[in-house]
Amino acid sequence: MDSEWTTMSTSILPPPTPVDQEKIRQAVAMILEAVGEDPEREGLKDTPDRVARMYVEIFSGLRQDPREALATRFHVDHDEVVVVKNIPFYSACEHHLLPFYGVAHVAYLPSGGEVTGLSKLARLVEAYARRPQVQERLTNQIADTLEQELAAQGVLIMMEAEHLCMTMRGIQKPGSRTVTVASRGIYRDQADRRNEVLQLMR
Known about the structure:
This protein has 202 residues and is an alpha+beta fold. The chain has seven helices and eight strands.
């Protein structure tokens, strides 16, 4: 199958603001004191620094333009759906800063034979997941970006996740999973086409 690769610059965001790790270290030490711990004891004295470095990593999406994940595209003779299933992701609930994690299923119907690399879909999920989030917004952001950047005829995103804010606190229901779906274009307008793709995702 012949293909023609193109790389497009899509970033219009200002340069990212560096993470203030010192402020995080101070805040973590204060939290440890507030819950009755001694932040200077052996097991905790390096915890503020570890947490600061961890936040740089798990919130790295705040310093990325997710659209750049789709900058590399190519044209192929393909006008059927593209589905990538079971993309693992980790995010943090913005209400409690506890993790939620699961898998994303990403599908789109190319327009004019323009597609992106399969790994780029996983990078798009990652860029939006690595920031304080709610699952509903995360699902919609991925769908909107795919539709806009690829001018896709249709987009369908399904995300399944377990939220630690529901399993280790509050209602405490381990094993419960939240499923969210976002559909755009032909998959929003035509139920039969949408159901075909949902079957592929299961």
